Amino acid sequence: MVSRAGGWPVHGGVLPRGALLWQRSMVNTTRTTFLRGPPGRRQIDKGKGPDDWRGHKTAMVSHAGDDRAVVEALQSIEKEEEVEFQGEAVAAWVGAAVAFGAGVWYFLGVEKAEEYFAGYLMEQSLSLDNLFVFILVFNYFQTPTECQPKVLSYGIASAAMLRLVMVGLGVELIESFKPVFLGFALLLLYSSFKLIAEGDDDEEDLEENGVVKFCKGAMRVSDEYDGDNFFTVEDGVRVATPLLLALAVVEISDVVFAVDSIPAVFGVTLDPFIVYTSNMFAILSLRSLYGFVSVIMTRLKFLDKAVALVLGFIGTKMIADFSGYHISTELSLLVVGCLLGGGVATSLWLPEPTDAA
């Protein structure tokens, strides 16, 4: 619960340090200026005129404004430090993925290594798009920041198991019934078209989202969070907290995302080992990647369109392969890298225009 004291947000009944310093200084100033006599017998100095009182009020407002500016500056520095820390964590996971790819190259050869890196890059790009939806879910449910890592950890664990099943079933389906490969390609082309057709100003209303409606109807949910607990007791009845509802939406959304990501990697290779390991290294970095992307997402306004183009390219490649026209893994890796790099570069070169004050 968030309450307010003197205009300051109070989290868990504790005032921010800036608020405490400001209130303490105001008390000391008031004692010095308005109170006279020994501590046991303080009276308001009625001799002060209106101008004196007005001047003191102005000083108080100015003092409060200066203090708020300092707090905002400190918060900005803290935000930059958080971005740097999350960026280092993402770099560590990427380094681990590259090291594993080097091992694939050493033990299985160049071709398998190229397939691994193409699959990893593709899954990582799709994961970025998924993270935008996770951010939307957390904002909608007003999930406390300290509770979000728990939801992400559970989501990553379930995603690992889900993809293991989907990779196995997908390979079996394609090998036993080749037209399934074409069906996956058409699914990717549809997803690509849908992403491109969506306007930049289209904001999804989660209140009308089918997944959210289903989860709300399937469980009784309390109105308040209870720390990082998924369940709480309300009027003597055990009920779910909004944190469990957020987890359920994230889990079901990941099932939908996997329907795109797994077929996309099938467009590069049908080797289940390469498909699964490339997926896993992309998924394992999601928690660190979320903290990084949630801060910089507003700067990457063209990334979702780049991901849409990647899906379209892979869908086209799968149709070409099905028709007997093979597109090499090297070319696929180059195209995917250029599309994603172009999306990031364009976002940085053409930032969102700022509204005039």
UniProtKB/TrEMBL annotation:
Subcellular location: Membrane
Membrane topology according to the record: Multi-pass membrane protein
Entry keyword set: Membrane, Transmembrane, Transmembrane helix
A Gene Ontology term for the protein's cellular component: membrane
Entry keyword annotation includes Chloroplast: no
Domain of life: Eukaryota
Transmembrane spans: 90-108, 120-141, 153-173, 273-290, 331-350
InterPro entries: Integral_membrane_TerC, Integral_membrane_TerC_rswitch
One Pfam family named in its UniProt record: TerC
NCBIfam families: R_switched_Alx
Protein's name in the database: Integral membrane protein TerC
Species assigned in the record: Ostreobium quekettii
